[in-house]
Amino acid sequence: MTAADFPSNTRRVQKTSLQGKMETTVVPIRFVLVIVGLYRYKLH
């Protein structure tokens, strides 16, 4: 690994961590929406 590869490598890590944050935020929201949808479906 050379010094030239380092900036692009850190940039790639930041991008993947941002995608990981997006996914960990979106997944619980979908999970809650599914539960609420099933709950309303059972009520009707």
Describe this structure in words.
The chain is an all-alpha fold. The protein has one domain. It has one helix spanning 5-43. The longest helix has 39 residues, at 5-43. The protein starts with a helix and ends with a helix. The model has no long low-confidence stretch (mean pLDDT 78).
What is the 3D shape?
A: rod-shaped
Rg from alpha-carbon coordinates:
19 Å
Counted beta strands: 0
SSE string: H
The quaternary state of the protein chains shown equals single chain
Helix content: over 70%
Q: Quickly give the structural class.
A: mainly alpha
Count of separate DSSP helical elements: 1
Number of domains: 1
> Strand fraction band?
under 5%
The biggest sheet, with number of strands, parallel, antiparallel or mixed sense and barrel status, is:
none
Arithmetic mean pLDDT: 78
As residue ranges, the low-confidence spans are: none
* Termini gap: 61 Å
SSE topology:
Blueprint: H1 5-43
Based on the model shown, name its key terms.
mainly alpha, 44 residues
Short overview:
With 44 residues, this protein is mostly helical. It has one helix and no strands. It is 89% helix and 0% strand.
